[in-house]
Amino acid sequence: WLERAGLPAVRALAGVEQPVDVDGVPVTFWRALPPHREAADRQLAGALRRLHALDPPGDFALPELAPFVRVRDRIEAAPTVSAADRAWLLGYLADLEARYAELPGGLPAGVVHGDAWAGNVVADDDGSVWLVDLERFSAGPPEWDLVSTAVRMTSFGTLDAAGYAEFCAAYGHDVTCWAGFETLRDIRELRACSYMLQHAGRSAAARAEAQWRLSCLRGRSGDRPWNWRRVF
């Protein structure tokens, strides 16, 4: 479907019967991409603009966007979270689920990547931009993909205002001006926090970052942006 639409993306290897079961684990085979790097923000915006303009596939149905997938499991299994913090996180999750159910209208719903940060949209040396990690491809509000970049400025402090303005200009829309932005922002923040909480036992740095993110969500560490950082 993406190939027919002319949108570069990872491709399953043709002529190979798959998936293959290896000790109960399904294994699939994909064509290797040329040498590549994370896409620049303007390249990410352009790829998302093209993706969001596509008609849904006619020969199969995309699943509905699931913005809370794995979040509850991560919170419940987090190895370093106190009982009080775990209860707060689960309550906050329930609040966000209710807010998402009342999300206001915005851009026309359609095809979304589902996990559209720069590491999942890459550029090769010829300037082609490729979509990768298609696990969360779904049907839903395009704003979900756009919020992934917006929170880098508003919440995480890893993108400056000029960089975000370039992204918005390349896409043609600023999601922070939408009435539903804060809801999707808060969901993205909780997802990023729960991911780090899940991995807090891997190292002292991971544990410190997980506790910092939780402290920020609980209002203990001042206003956004909070300067969250990648640990691995």
Automatic annotation (TrEMBL):
Pfam family, one: APH
Aminoglycoside phosphotransferase domain residues: 3-178
Keyword list, A-Z: Transferase
One GO MF term attached to the UniProt entry: transferase activity
Superkingdom: Bacteria
InterPro entries: Aminoglycoside_PTrfase, Kinase-like_dom_sf
Annotated protein name in UniProt: Aminoglycoside phosphotransferase family protein
Organism of this sequence: Jiangella rhizosphaerae
